[in-house]
Amino acid sequence: MRTLSWFHLLLLSLVALSLVGCAANFPPPTQNLALSEAAINQAEASGAVEFAPVEMRLAREKLTEARAALAREENKKALQWAEQAEVDAQLAEAKARTAKAQKTVAELQESIQILKMEIERKAKP
């Protein structure tokens, strides 16, 4: 069996220390994950599942990636995934609210048109 030289051991030690140092710089982003999950829940409540299914799917997938990264103790990646999930959920919610507002406007315009036709019909002798 081949043994490691002192240079390889030193190199492995430096890599290990740098990994520990990187992990120490980024605390676990548990609060960001909670915010992302709350944003997804709020988007679902606003109807985003129906009106923005692609954005909702992306938000859920990114939250899953964030949880996986957190489990691997890759806190920086977990933070990035969590932030992206939150933004996607907010976009989905905005799209849902816009779609609902557009639907309401279309319904009001249709009601106005029906009222105009009714007024015109009654005005004719």
From TrEMBL:
Annotated coiled-coil segments of the chain: 56-118
Leader sequence residues: 1-23
Keyword Ubl conjugation: no
Keywords assigned: Coiled coil, Signal
InterPro entries linked: DUF4398
One Pfam family linked to the record: DUF4398
Domain DUF4398: 32-108
Source organism superkingdom: Bacteria
Name the record gives this protein: DUF4398 domain-containing protein
Organism expressing this protein natively: Desulfuromonas soudanensis
